[in-house]
């Protein structure tokens, strides 16, 4: 299985790489990433949209999602907006929207709405204060819950509670599983590589000395 | 684009779901996840292997990866081992190993090595104290750096610094990007759905008013 040539880098080898190589390598090592657009508003209700690729499931009870933000938050607008207004949205991206989504990472001036700059449509749902992305098939509205400082590099983990979620009805299974692949959600690796997915299978809950079973996708509709 | 029927769940709707439905839905909403095996040892050098799906890139300088662990760490062995010995490994999973990887989540007794139970091979590299998974194409050795408590639900974010990384030489690009898809790394969604990936493209660094370009994969060998 491993007749191929393998490389072994130590921490010293990694530290000796050029900065771009180091960043590309380390960003790839954490595996495939969740990538989505965060919509937010500032105190003057100016809307903002930015791509993030560091989402993580934090817990189901209460239902919440986290994401890691770099320390230079003053240069960007998403985290200050979230801390100021308390609300934001997470919008999955698909093959139809990933180019616009990636383009939101360009450093537009503060008075430019990335929705306008990349041509995506802000959508307001149920009086929720932050804009959703109309083109996203899975849209989540969150209320800010906790800001967790990470000492070793000054990044922060921002955690929000899910207040609203909108999704295609035909992607929901009887057991609550939402088929995000069927909804067209993409994944990314490194900083800039976008990927479609292809399901192998869902696996049953593992127990000692029991053979795993395939869980058929039992859509509600 | 959205002629399909859409569902809108509020927080109240989510809270009214059965527990299994709630857990399956919320675990899917955070998007595609990084999934990998963590190898560790206890103070008596007994080896342990467990699957996690909550890895997140924390930073490149220093090079580090985080993962979220549930609060019931006493029932499991990975986090106590990491806190006790200071070292652990992260091993990507592929189509050849995902069944064994998923099976490590079964609650084996403390004196059972999951390596033996699921038939994966522990590999020790460069005197690193924790076991790697020989069958994994991307193997990472980490030193524990920081334990970040999350107040809202008692979970913790464990962060480690990358000390060693072993990978197939033909997956490394000139700019440091590691092609984890070529290495066979899988992604997962929800708690139990495993997926292959298929690259659309790598995109250039975004700048205002510039058209994004495809970055060709420029392998070193």
Descriptive notes:
The structure is a homodimer of 221-residue chains. Chain A is of the alpha+beta class and 221 residues long. The first copy, chain A, has a single domain (30-195), classed as Pnp Oxidase, Chain A (Roll), CATH 2.30.110.10. In chain A, 16% of the residues lie in helices and 36% in strands. The first copy, chain A, is built from five helices and 13 strands. In chain A, the strands form three sheets. In chain A, strands 4-3-7-10-11-6-5 form a seven-stranded antiparallel beta sheet. The relative contact order of chain A is 0.16. The interface between A and B is large, with 123 and 123 residues.
Quick summary:
Two copies of one chain form a homodimer. The first copy, chain A, has five helices and 13 strands.
The greatest interface between two protein chains, and residues involved on each side, is: A-B, 123 and 123 residues
> What can be said about the biggest beta sheet of chain A?
7 strands, antiparallel
Quaternary form: homodimer
How many structural domains in the coordinates of chain A?
1
Strand order in the sheet with the most strands of chain A? 4-3-7-10-11-6-5
What share of residues are in beta strands of chain A?
Answer: 35-45%
The radius of gyration computed from the alpha-carbon positions of chain A, rounded to a whole number of angstroms, is 19 Å
* Helix-strand string of chain A: EHHEEEEEHEHHEEEEEE
Annotation, overall tally of beta strands of chain A: 13
CATH topology of chain A: the name is: Pnp Oxidase, Chain A
How far from one another are the termini of chain A?
42 Å
Regions of chain A with pLDDT < 50 over 5+ consecutive residues?
none
